[in-house]
Automatic annotation (TrEMBL):
Species for this entry: Candidatus Accumulibacter aalborgensis
Domain TGS: residue ranges: 412-473
Protein name (Swiss-Prot/TrEMBL): Bifunctional (P)ppGpp synthetase II and guanosine-3',5'-bis pyrophosphate 3'-pyrophosphohydrolase
Domain HD: 71-170
Gene expressing this chain: spoT
Domain annotation ACT: ranges: 657-732
Family according to the record: Belongs to the relA/spoT family.
The organism's place on the tree of life at top rank: Bacteria
GO molecular function: GTP diphosphokinase activity; guanosine-3',5'-bis(diphosphate) 3'-diphosphatase activity
Keyword Acetylation: no
Length: 735
């Protein structure tokens, strides 16, 4: 965020400016603290940082933030945060220069000449992000976020500098308009804080949340902070007893460890109160303890010792050491019952794990003992960014892409196992379809069921922690729209939508070609005899580039087949009206896919007299001839309706609703279900009308049949059941 009051117009910037009008940087205490924090760099690299500071200060000279401070205070603060992570010299220099391309006349080439191409690339990537304000228009928000992801995927230092930039902006927003403060804070909660969490930057994640909370709800934050301070005083004695108890038990067990008390962040307490509808006094686990040990075996010994001291809460133990979180976090979590029945959370981990837990990906630079872990975490993070970028290739538009990304930014993970023992993290509530797409797109597209813990289960089954899942596939299986309501991952949602759109497009093309061929035959012409010159004229007039696109537009209802046929034959003067010489009926099999839809109001099945209507974007919708829902529409727009008939052998099952009035006797539902099953018919849904219980009750079945003949056979069988008083086909739902 660039909040400047004036803009520098200097075309060429010297390396050092000794103007007496401006104080020497060494006189600035903030600058001296910053330089002292660079002691981890060699002297020659510190000189490069000094030069970058002078360059940035001169470029921003004359600019001020809305608070009135010189603008250089902002890049200096961001670079100071980067130095706390002990990032390399290129990262620190880029932090000092991150706004010069956006707010001054300095270009990328000049930065590259003075500080090298890697620094120029970093600044260039950051400059593309600085105008991200995430206005109310979701499309612009998503487009900007795409740019941010691309820069992050190239170099992870970009995201760390950007997060430090956002952190400092949140700390210095007193002079910003209240509505703008709230908008930026909400954007931080929605995007930047989750990214910090995903990178394992737990400390920064909590600070971003708390700062945003204070900006969005200042009164609530103050009230909750006062309550937390009061509780801290009231519970001091209890917490001291627990702390001393833990230390004493570890001494008795000869375990060397550091024990720390910890407090939940203000925003996490607020979220818990909000989500579980609790008052502050009902949030018992505000405080917890962290035990840092020397190695992994000692961590498990510590767990055993402390479980012997305080009783653990069943179901509250989590082993993130054996199965780390995707962001590299490792720790043992358990909840214990302390004195007076007070529950508290305990975390046990090694020092290296503690470093990663606090600083995440930044621990790669900050802690040399975490370097191997940090390198692995960098690889995982880069892979995650690339997986997000992969979503944009299948997302239909920016808002859809943004929806997928937000799903991936809020994962409450569960861990499941493939048949080969590979561990895959999925969001809570995920189904086998999510797992299938996480493994490979083709497996997801051809999934039919799953063996969960060696039991065959449907794809809609919700997975739980530790499940062993083996996906069952079939070559002729394909995704359906119902999966979108079942999946939880952005990847699965994106791949399903991409398949459905592609399938819909292909099926609409085939339908459009069939409809145009029908119209041409009615005009006495075979489609293959239409000259190329006629098609060129139609393509020129329509704006389409390919004949296939014309077919697709017809199938989707964006063009009328009769009009296109007349233009192909240069017969525009012939009016498109209802006549006795209308085209022969369009023949359908019912297996055309999404291009042909069967109206839910009348649920047509083979054998029913049918009629079709083309709707823009939907394709051909089929109704029965006597459907009450379309009576007015047919008389108002007769040209919109197409005569349709069934192919002799459609080869598909169709849903039909049945209404049965039956005697209210014991076991009647079971006898009816058995008769339906014995007839080879599948039951999709059943419910009972219990509004007027008495001697008779009404049952509603939705069954799948191949034709009107098979439906009649089923209904005859049901009528033979003594308890069935009346049976009818239910076609009463509105369109």
């Amino acid at each position: 965020m660039n909040t400047v009051a004036a803009t520098s117009t200097t075309a060429e910037l010297p390396l050092v400016d000794h103007s007496a009008d401006f104080p020497h940087p060494e006189d600035d205490p903030a600058y001296r603290v910053f330089i002292d924090s660079l002691s981890y760099l060699p002297p020659e690299e510190i000189e490069v940082v000094r030069e970058a500071y002078l360059f940035s200060e001169y470029a921003h000279r004359g600019q001020r933030r809305l608070s009135g401070e010189a603008y250089i205070t902002h890049p200096l603060a961001v670079a100071g945060a980067i130095a706390e992570w002990q990032m390399d010299v290129e990262g620190v220099v880029a932090a000092l220069l991150h706004d010069v391309m956006e707010d001054t006349v300095v270009g990328k080439n000049e930065i590259a000449e003075r500080f090298g191409k890697p620094v120029a690339d970093l600044v260039d990537g950051l400059s593309k992000l600085d105008k991200i304000e995430f206005q109310s228009h979701e499309e612009a928000q998503a487009e900007n976020f795409r740019k941010m992801l691309m820069a992050m995927a190239r170099d992870l230092r970009v995201v760390l500098i950007k997060l430090a930039d956002r952190h400092h902006n949140l700390q210095t927003m007193a002079a910003v308009r209240a509505d703008k403060r709230r908008r930026i804070a909400r954007e931080t909660l929605e995007i930047y804080a989750p990214i910090a969490s995903r990178l394992g930057l737990n400390k920064l994640f909590q600070e971003l949340q708390d700062l945003s909370f204070h900006l969005i709800y200042p009164m609530r934050a103050r009230v909750l902070a006062r309550a937390l301070n009061a509780a801290r005083g009231n519970r001091r004695e209890l917490l001291s007893r627990i702390l001393e108890g833990i230390k004493g038990k570890l001494r008795d067990a000869n375990i060397v460890a550091q024990v720390f008390g910890r407090e939940k962040s203000l925003y996490s307490i607020y979220r818990k109160m909000l989500e579980k509808r609790l008052s502050f006094s009902q949030v018992l686990d505000v405080y917890g303890f962290r035990v840092v040990v020397t190695d992994v075996p000692t961590a498990y010994l510590t767990l055993g010792a402390l479980h012997a001291l305080y009783k653990p809460v069943p179901g509250k133990f989590k082993d993130y050491i054996a199965i780390p979180k995707p962001n590299g976090y490792q720790s043992l979590h358990t909840t214990l019952i302390g004195p007076h029945g007070t529950p508290f959370e305990l975390q046990i981990r090694t020092e290296a794990m503690d470093n990663v837990a606090q600083e995440g990906i930044a621990s790669h630079w900050l802690y040399k003992d975490s370097e191997a872990v940090g390198a692995e975490l960098q690889q995982k993070t880069t892979k995650w960014f690339h997986s997000l970028l992969d979503l944009q290739s299948t997302a239909g538009d920016s808002s859809e892409f943004f929806e997928h990304v937000k799903v991936d930014l809020f994962p409450h993970e569960i861990y499941v196992f493939t048949p080969k023992g590979k561990i895959i993290a999925l969001p809570r509530g995920a189904t086998p379809v999510d797992l299938a797409y996480a493994v490979h797109t083709d497996i997801g597209n051809h999934s039919v069921a799953a063996h969960i813990n060696f039991t065959l289960m449907p794809l809609a089954t919700e997975l739980t922690n530790g499940d062993r899942v083996d996906i069952v596939t079939a070559a002729d299986a394909h995704p359906n729209a119902a999966w979108l309501a079942q999946v939880k991952t952005g990847r699965a949602r994106s791949k399903i939508r991409h398949y459905l759109k592609t399938a819909h497009h292909d099926e609409s093309t085939a339908l459009g070609e069939k409809m145009l061929d029908q119209e041409l035959r009615a005009l006495g012409v075979v489609a293959s005899e239409v000259p190329v010159s006629s098609w060129k004229n139609v393509l020129r007039d329509s704006g389409n580039k390919l004949i296939k696109e014309v077919y697709t537009d017809i199938g989707l209802g964006f063009r009328i087949a009769g009009v296109v046929a007349r233009r192909l034959l240069a017969r525009e003067e012939a009016p498109l009206v209802v006549t006795d010489n209308r085209p022969a009926s369009l023949v359908i099999r019912g297996t055309e896919g999404m291009a042909v839809q069967f109206a839910p109001c009348c649920q047509p099945i083979p054998g029913d007299p049918i009629i079709g209507s083309i709707w823009k974007g939907k394709g051909l919708v089929i109704h029965t001839h006597d459907c009450l829902a379309i009576r007015k529409a047919r008389s108002a727009k007769p040209t919109k309706w197409i005569e349709v008939e069934w192919e002799p052998e459609p080869g598909k099952l169709f849903s039909v609703r049945l209404r049965l009035m039956v005697q209210n006797t014991l076991g009647v539902l079971g006898r009816i279900a058995t008769e339906i099953s014995n007839s080879g018919t599948n039951i999709e849904h059943v419910n009972m009308d219990d509004k007027h219980p008495g001697l008779y009750t009404t049952l509603h079945f939705t069954v799948q049949v191949a034709s009107r003949t098979s439906l009649a056979r089923l209904m005859r069988g049901l009528r033979r059941i003594p308890e069935v008083a009346r049976i009818s086909r239910d076609q009463g739902l509105p369109a």
